[in-house]
Design goal:
The protein is an alpha/beta fold and 287 residues long. It has helices at residues 16-30, 34-52, 71-78, 91-103, 141-151, 170-181, 202-209, 229-237, 241-247, 251-266, and strands spanning 59-63, 83-88, 109-113, 126-132, 152-163, 213-226, 269-270, 273-286. Helices cover 41% and strands 23% of the residues. It binds S-adenosylmethionine.
Length: 287
């Protein structure tokens, strides 16, 4: 069982439904504050767009769109005669994304509250399916891959970004590693890791299992920049469900997790602030 960020939760978690509900609630609560964290993810979105190359008049579906990326960027690329739908489990994310798209006057773009595991679209409806930092959070990523395959037209493309492994997704692991120190193993003693789909070949294997061909994997490292440790915690921890997970711990454990996070960040500190690398994995495939 994983929580809203793919962090292991204690064995009390009973079913996929309650996991989904807790994910939905966590992201609903983080919708407003997530806006600042999003800027950190932009470079990975550009990597993804460069590889899936949305074309004028195409139709695209963005899974786990959050506040609307990469859906909004794709809508600009396919133009007013194209069609882009962004779906997310969290209604707050969808409401806020809709507001932002309206403010920016982006045409041909719709946001809907929907579970990526049960896509409410007919077979062969889209030319392109994307997801930026969604697949490692889905309770059942295999089902999402099969659903994506179903709604794509023949020769349709899929493009996904997830975090790399813990050692390489350094900026995320700075807080996740201390969190995991206090996470309970499940009933079999297994301690899952939040970077499960980031290992070599993991996502390409998953997509091939869903029927995709021409799978390709690429790794890209970008540097995340923060003024200081406090800004990291404000944006990346308190601005996302990570902060919520930490607050569920005892106060003494919370203190230890944050102290561990600050200690990890200090290694990347210079006069220019904290500059910390983070590897993403971009995977593309064709139906
Ligand atoms: C890390 S955010 C990514 C948001 C956006 N794509 C971005 O890159 O900024 C993950 C999103 O996945 C959504 N999510 C989690 N499980 C989902 C599911 N089963 N179906 C649809 N969305 C889901 C969450 O609500 C959250 O908005």
């Amino acid at each position: 069982m994983r929580d809203a960020w793919g962090i292991p939760v204690p064995p009390a978690m009973p079913s996929d439904d309650s996991e989904r509900e807790s994910t939905r609630r966590a992201w609903n609560e983080s919708a407003e504050s997530y806006r600042r964290a999003m800027r950190l993810f932009e470079p990975y979105g550009f990597d993804l767009l460069a590889r899936v190359n949305p074309k004028i008049r195409e139709s695209a579906l963005d899974l786990a769109t959050g506040l609307g990326e990469p859906a909004m960027s794709i809508a600009r690329m396919v133009g007013p005669d194209g069609r882009v739908v962004g779906i997310d489990l969290s209604e707050q994310m969808v409401n806020l994304a809709t507001r932002i798209a309206k403010e920016r006057r982006i045409p041909g773009l719709t946001f809907l509250a929907m579970d990526a595991e049960k896509l409410d679209f007919p077979d062969e409806s889209f030319d392109l399916v994307t997801s930026r930092f969604g697949f490692h959070i889905f309770a059942d990523p295999e089902t999402v891959a099969k659903e994506s395959h179903r709604v794509l037209r023949p020769k349709g493309r899929i493009g996904i970004v997830v975090w790399s492994t813990a050692e390489k997704a350094t900026a995320i692991n700075a807080v996740v590693a201390p969190m995991l120190e206090f996470a309970e193993p499940d009933e079999t003693g297994y301690r899952p890791r939040p970077f499960e789909l980031g290992g070599p070949g993991e996502l390409t294997t998953l997509l091939a299992g869903a029927g995709f061909v021409e799978t390709q994997e690429e790794r890209r490292t970008h540097t995340m920049v923060f003024k200081d440790e406090a800004e990291y915690i404000e944006i990346l921890v308190e601005g996302t469900p990570l902060g919520r997970s930490i607050k569920e711990e005892d106060p003494s454990v919370q203190k230890k997790i944050l102290a561990g996070t600050r200690a990890n960040l200090r290694k990347w500190k210079s006069r220019k602030g904290i500059q910390i690398p983070c590897e993403g994995v971009i995977v593309t495939a064709t139906k």
